Amino acid sequence: MKVFINKRIPEIGIKMLEEAGLEIVIPENENISHEEWLKYCQNADVILNVGQNKYEKEFFEQCPNVKAIALYSVGFDHVDIPEANKRSIPVGNTPDVLSRATSDIAFLLMQSVARRASYNFQKVKENNWGDFDPLHALGQELYGKTLGIFGLGRIGYEMAEKCRKAFDMKIIYHNRNHNREAEIKLDAKYVSFDELISQSDVLSIHANFKDEQADLFNQSVFEKMKTDAVFINTARGGFHNQKDLYHALAEKKIWGAGLDVTNPEPILQDDPILDLSNVCILPHIGSATVEARNGMAKLAAKNIIAFSNGEKMPYCANPEVYE
Ligand code: DGY
After folding, report:
1. CA-nearest residue, atom 6 of ligand 1
2. In contact, 206 and 150? CB cutoff 8 Å
3. Is the peptide bond before 82 cis (omega within 30 degrees of 0)?
4. What is the reported pLDDT for 30?
């Protein structure tokens, strides 16, 4: 069985696949064009996908030989799941192993924005350290503040737990379902979307992205938020309207924003949001730790090995494919 991996993953995953006797194809030059990528996919039985390549109807029609996809990500918004289901193609993902790392980044961004770290670092780089000034560059403390989580799953839970333990923050959340564990262990309170946006001192997005949620966080939302609120997005850039966010930040309708994901990605170099002093922007590094990336490699390999043995993928984004 031929497995195409478009970008090298940690050795631990490659080794597992080799030991399982699978044939692995990795392009020497990883910066291949879309056409070259498609050719590799057409010749593969299974794809181990790194990054945001899109798997839509057209792809499946062009690559009828593909029998399974193992994503090197927890998010699967770049896969048209109903189209995969129609063809009985299981789509594996990598949950849990990156929850700690990704929530760490949300936590880091929250503090960085609250204490104006990017602004102050920029001043240092510009040789503008300045004298001690009792009134300048003041941040805000997070103790006892309200953290609003949009999408309280595994990553959101870890973020809420850190905020509770570190800063005794109150937790409110909005989700499709109630998260009873969070309600019991973190005293988290389920609120409506409107309550979430108007009551949060820090609003952090941790939901799976669906197309219908595009631009959910837009001008009308930013206008309802507190003027000293911190907006954090480590989930998917599609959740926020970046122009609206820029205006909200530039016009001080909210305090600041910490983004590990942008809209679009990579961010455009002439995006005016980059010139603002109340943002901290990272290049989608939520899962970029040795531990998380090794964990993701193992889960992706486990998914492929199970598939090659005729078993169900243990970490599957579309378990209904097995029904
Ligand atoms: C994920 O795993 O979904 C990360 O955002 C990387 O794409």
Report:
1. 73
2. yes
3. no
4. 83
Give the domain ranges of the chain.
2-97+289-322, 99-281
DSSP state letter for 8? -
Nearest ligand 1 atom to alpha carbon 98: 2
Kindly report, residue by residue over 128-161, the tens digit of the pLDDT.
Answer: 999 999 999 999 999 999 999 999 999 999 999 9
For atom 7 of ligand 1, which residue has the closest CA? 73
Question: Which is catalytic among the residues 116, 236, 240, 293?
Answer: 236
Q: 136 C-alpha vs ligand 1 centroid, how far in Å?
A: 37
Rounded Cα–Cα distance for residues 252 and 246 (Å): 10
How far is 87 from 71, CA to CA, in rounded Å? 17
C-alpha 104 to ligand 1 mean position (Å): 14
In sequence order, the 6+-apart residues with CB closer than 8 A to the CB of 45 are: 1, 2, 3, 65, 66, 67, 68
* 13 to 5, 18, 236, 264: CA distances (angstroms): 11, 9, 26, 30
Is 265 noted as a catalytic residue in this protein? yes
- Amino acid, single-letter form, for residue 164: R
284 is catalytic: yes
pLDDT band per the 50, 70, 90 thresholds, residue 275 = very high
Q: Kindly state the DSSP code that residue 158 receives in the 8-state scheme.
A: H
The domain defined by 2-97+289-322 carries CATH number 3.40.50.300: no
What digits encode the pLDDT tens for the residues 159-190? 999 999 999 999 999 999 999 999 999 999 99
Is 3.40.50.720 the CATH classification of the domain at 99-281? yes
Q: Given this chain, do its domains 2-97+289-322 and 99-281 carry the same CATH topology? A: yes
pTM of the model: 0.97
Question: Are 163 and 188 spatial neighbours (Cβ–Cβ below 8 Å)?
Answer: no
